[in-house]
Amino acid sequence: MKKFIVRRLLLGVVILFFVSIIIYSIERSLPTSYVEGKARAMSQKQGAKPYDELVADLNASYGLDKPVLPGYFSWLGKAIRGQFGESWVWHQPVTEKFGSVIWYSFALGLISFLLEIFIAIPLGIISATKQYSRTDYAITVVALVGISLPSFFFATILKWIFSIHLGWFDLYGIVSRMHEQMGSLGQLLDIGKHLVLPAATLTIVSIGSLMRYTRTSMLEVMNADYIRTARAKGLSEKKVIYHHAFRNSLIPIVTILGNSLPNLFAGAMITETLFQIPGIGYTGYQCLVQGDIPFTMFYMVFLAFLTLMGTFIADILYAVVDPRVRVN
Fold first, then answer.
1. pTM of the full predicted structure?
2. Given pLDDT bands bounded at 50, 70 and 90, which one contains residue 326?
């Protein structure tokens, strides 16, 4: 196991290296340029330098006058030392801005992740145990709707019903106008209230896949010989399903949940943008459209790191949920 972990970690470093090169190359090729926008604004001031000269000066100050590979290795050398530069849009260190917005995304991701587990897995088990019944068909329809329709559709529907029609929630933002006048508990409840609709949106679009995986995995296990043997021994149906069948169907479910773990910190760009939640997803989107290379590089490499860690954790959990799984 130790050799496997070390080998996977070293492989992850190599993959992250090449992924970061690709991300940096794409960033340098984007048509949106913060430098050009800033130079254009500065050139319009009285007594300012010409636009072309300002672009050259800003590119030199930001290290964009180098070719892609030398520029990348210059960024990598600083990144290894924990120096990710200053955000061009927010005018503060990238890590400082990241630390100020990540917890909104973590709270939103954690709520939707827990709801996904507590809703999708039981429904998947019920659907499998009542195969081809009305309950099974109803759960299947719900799962297919969640898989098929995009998050912006559900977000729009929820805002129209609960914000515009009923007026229960605000359309946008993370706090209300009277947030500063509230006590500590009131401020916490105010933030929680603004996370209800985004969390509901993420839960709706995510439960379908986990529900279908749980149902399929359970159906495969319930047709096995040892399940028929357990029933023949007189074990209760509840014990057969939850102690024998469900435990042995966890491998595919762990794969889905392991890949979902990075979402706790990765943010939900579309959902956060639609509700204007100042999390890492919405902040990353703003920096991306404005050509903020330092922050976007950090954010994208962070997403790649989370994806690798999610896959690595899922591989380790295989041996935890199923003792028969061993690293060869």
1. 0.80
2. low
From the list 272, 275, 270, the residue with the least C-alpha distance to 162 is: 275
Rounded to an integer, what distance in angstroms lies between the CA atom of residue 255 and that of residue 293?
Answer: 33
Q: Which domains does the chain have, with CATH numbers?
A: 2-80 (no CATH), 94-321 (1.10.3720.10)
For the stretch 189-226, pLDDT in tens is: 888 888 899 999 988 888 888 888 888 888 888 877 77
The pLDDT of residue 327 is above 60? no
From 268, 305, 309, select the one nearest 79 (Cα to Cα). 305
Res. 38: pLDDT tops 80: no
Give me the half-sphere count of Cα atoms (radius 13 Å) on the Cβ side of residue 120. 27
pLDDT per residue as tens digits for the range 124-181? 888 888 888 898 899 988 888 888 888 888 888 999 999 888 888 888 888 888 777 7
